[in-house]
Specification:
two-stranded antiparallel sheet; 2 helices; 8% helix
Length: 102
């Protein structure tokens, strides 16, 4: 965990990075990774630049590829390519029938 304390205008704040702060963040691969090989992902969390170990959920990921953090495991993050999150193979939300609208 990373903790940075600052005092501004007499108010206390900290930058303790928790699991909930990391999951759902978008980062960039700085050392290639795959499901079987750990690499590194760079994230900015609470103003801190973090380089954390990561493995992919599927295919190999190359340097400079944008990823989404799905889960923080004991020794690494589980990430997927950001483009995969927006592919058409994902389930679509139901479209409301236009004839039933007032």
């Amino acid at each position: 965990m990373l903790l940075k304390r600052t005092f501004s205008d007499g108010n206390y704040s900290d930058s303790l990075v928790r699991n909930a702060d990391i999951v759902g963040q978008v980062g960039v691969i700085i050392l290639s990774c795959s499901p079987r090989q750990r690499g590194l992902v760079r994230l900015t969390v609470k103003g801190n630049l973090l380089d954390l170990p990561a493995r992919s959920d599927g295919r190999s990921l190359g340097i400079n590829e944008s990823v989404l953090v799905l889960q923080q495991l004991q020794d690494h993050l589980l990430v997927v390519p950001l483009q995969q999150v927006f592919t058409s193979s994902q389930p679509k939300l139901p479209v409301q029938d236009q004839t039933s609208l007032p």
